[in-house]
Each structure stands twice: as C-alpha cells, then as structure tokens.
Design brief:
Elements: E1 12-16, H1 21-32, E2 36-41, H2 44-56, E3 60-65, H3 71-85, E4 90-93, H4 113-141, E5 144-149, H5 162-182, E6 186-193, H6 199-204, H7 209-214, H8 225-236, E7 247-250
Helix pairs in contact: 1-2, 1-8, 3-4, 4-5
This protein binds nicotinamide-adenine-dinucleotide.
Nicotinamide-adenine-dinucleotide binds near residues 42, 67, 68 and 98.
Protein name: 3-oxoacyl-[acyl-carrier protein] reductase
Pfam families: adh_short_C2 (PF13561)
GO molecular function, one term: oxidoreductase activity, acting on the CH-OH group of donors, NAD or NADP as acceptor
C-alpha cells in the first residue's frame, strides 16, 4: 500500500484512551479511513461519545469502558473487540499520561511510592497487559500491528518528571523487545510526541509556562493531536509494512534545549 492509498477498510482497531486528546484523534482517523474501531477508555461517556462521532462519519465503532491497568478489564476489552468485529488488526496503546488524578509529576525527593507505581501502571503495565491480551489473536491471524504511545521524555528526560520519563523510556524498550518477539507477522512501533495541545495539557499549564516551554521547540509551537494521529495512522497501515521496532518523534525538533542551544527550561515541578 502506498501512502496516497491509505485505507483501513476491512481492518479493525482497538484504541486505548480513545476518549480524549491524541487517542480520540487516532480513533476518528481510523474510522474516517474505513476502519472498525473499538474505542476503549476508563471514562465510558468519553468512549461512547467518540464511538458516536465515528458512526456519524459513516464508520463502525464500539465503545468499551476499561481501565487498562487492570488485567480483567483488559481481557474484557479484547473480547469485546473480537466479538464485535471478529479480528483485531491494530492495537494503539495510547492510554497513559503524566498528570491528573492517577498520576503526578514531581521531583524525586517529593515523589510518593504510590505516585511512582501509578505512573508505571498507567504508562507501562497497561502496554504489557493490552499486548498480552491482543497479541495471541494477531499471531493467530498472522497479521497485526501495535503502536505504543511513548513520549519525548522517554528519550530526553524532562527535569521534574522522573517517574513519567522512566516509564516512557520503559515503553520504548518494551516496543523494541516486542518488535523482535512478535515478528514477522506483527509489527510494533512507538511514537514519541513532544508538546502536544490537548484539553489536558492546556488545563495543566500555567499561562506563563507556554513561552518557556516553547523556547525549547525549534518549530516554536505546540503540536496538534491530528499531527500525532497522522503518524500513528501511518505506522498502523500497510504503508509502513517494513517499519518495525522504531520510535518516531513528533516534537518539532525539541531536544530540551533552547533554539540557540542553551539549556533552558529546567524544572516544571515547581
Ligand atoms: N499531550 C501531550 O503533550 C503528550 C506528549 C507526549 C506523550 N503523550 C502521551 O500520549 C497519550 C495520550 O495523551 P493525551 O495528552 O491525549 O491525554 P488525555 O488526558 O487527553 O487523554 C487520555 C485518555 O486516556 C484515558 N485513560 C487514562 N488512563 C487510562 C486507563 N488506565 N485506562 C483507560 N483509559 C485511560 C483518559 O480517560 C483519557 O480519555 C498518553 O500516553 C501520554 O502520555 C502526550
């Protein structure tokens, strides 16, 4: 398949954290391109609302409430997708994050064991559990691909975010490990977004932080969820049939340095 012919017609996908932000954009993109989508989210209203958006676009979708840190919920999610569509071609392990009720950013001396564990559960254990639940079917089908949502912080740790940075580094390592283990019929790749504008990131950002944050981004702006989604759609499609075990940055060239090369933004933990 050439990129100009991008289509998911006849393909089915599970998108975790599909109810908001980047996951929502990926789910909508898959639906728009003809894919049948299982939108999984811990927030059932969010999942259902994205499922309804996909159906309004003429696509097929089911919504599943699942906390992807819980093995029973993940097994139920995989079964629901299989029951609805008969197969699973694409798994997007997108659920996760660095802030919100389940996760905290914070410097290491102030970080609780609970926050450390929750951050790893949401970002790493979830990828393991979802892959373990879906990969057997992909191997049986002799076709599948997995896209894991890492972060630029997994490659260039962000000061003040040790748990999240380490968790996303683990996602990158897990991606490479799975890419070897599940080949040749299942491909596994990761995306490493930088600063992406989502309802969550704009909510968590103090206004004065934006300039400081953007001083580290050569392209001098936040990325959009659709820009990340387009990269996920590429990795999930047959246009990327020879792409395996890779980590693609979507970060405007950010390397945690100012555009003139001085280290700048040191600590967002406050
Ligand atoms: N937005 C950014 O700037 C950015 C940058 C780098 C990486 N990322 C990563 O991209 C992914 C999506 O981030 P976003 O900014 O779109 O987040 P978001 O908060 O807008 O959406 C995340 C969605 O995932 C769901 N979710 C969270 N934990 C879950 C769980 N345990 N089980 C099921 N659903 C769960 C939430 O309910 C929410 O609907 C995350 O893995 C995040 O770490 C985001």
């Amino acid at each position: 398949m050439r990129l100009s012919e991008l289509s998911f017609r006849g393909r089915t996908a599970v998108v975790t954290g599909g109810g908001s932000g980047i996951g929502r954009a990926i789910a909508l993109g898959l639906g728009r391109l003809g894919g049948k989508v299982c939108v999984a989210d811990m927030g059932v209203d969010r999942a259902e609302s994205v499922g309804a958006e996909i159906r309004a676009l003429g696509g097929e979708a089911v919504a599943v409430q699942a906390d992807v840190t819980r093995p029973e919920a993940v097994e139920r999610m995989a079964l629901a997708a299989r029951d609805a569509f008969g197969r699973i071609d694409v798994l997007v392990n997108n659920a996760g994050g660095a802030s919100g009720p389940a996760f905290r950013i914070g410097r290491v001396c102030k970080l609780s064991e609970r926050d450390w564990d929750d951050t790893f559960a949401a970002n790493v254990k979830s990828v393991f559990l979802c892959t373990r639940a879906v990969a057997p079917l992909m191997l049986e089908q002799r076709h599948g691909c997995i896209v894991n949502m890492a972060s630029l912080t997994g490659q260039f740790p962000f000061p003040g975010m040790p748990a999240y940075s380490a968790a996303k580094a683990a996602v990158i390592s897990l991606t490479r490990s799975l890419a070897m283990e599940l080949a040749p019929h299942v491909r596994v790749n990761a995306l490493a977004p930088g600063l992406i504008e989502t309802p969550r990131t704009s909510l968590n950002r103090r206004p004065e932080q934006l300039d400081q944050l953007l001083s580290n981004v050569p392209l001098a702006r936040m990325g959009t969820v659709d820009e990340v989604a387009d990269m996920a759609l590429y990795l999930a499609s047959d246009a990327a049939a020879f792409v395996n075990g890779t980590v693609m940055d979507c970060a405007g060239g950010q390397m945690w340095m100012t555009r003139d090369g001085r280290p700048a933004f040191r600590d967002i933990a406050g």
